[in-house]
């Protein structure tokens, strides 16, 4: 996977290569925002609000990741966005279980993909 990402980055146009560090910094910042919202979920705060915010952040990551050669990161972000949309449509009583069962494990996967992207770019 690292060789694939490195090859994609090296073959990218100069503009994309020049913007890659900014993309990685911004994506790492977005991961911090997700971590804050995750903390809110784990603290028992309103799951609707935190899930909605996580979905918006994941949408931003998904929209740019593939452009920089990080398809797996983009796909995982899209998966989280979909999960968040589905959880937000659930009843108040059903949301906490859905967050535990689906969203929290997906967020772990997203953190792993972001780590892989950061390692492959270095």
UniProtKB/TrEMBL annotation:
Organism of provenance: Pseudotabrizicola alkalilacus
Keyword Hydrolase: no
Keywords linked to the UniProt accession: Phosphoprotein, Two-component regulatory system
Protein name, entry field: HPt domain-containing protein
InterPro entries: HPT_dom_sf, Sig_transdc_His_kin_Hpt_dom
GO biological process terms on file: phosphorelay signal transduction system
Limits of the HPt domain: 12-117
Phosphohistidine: modified positions: 59
Pfam families for the chain: Hpt
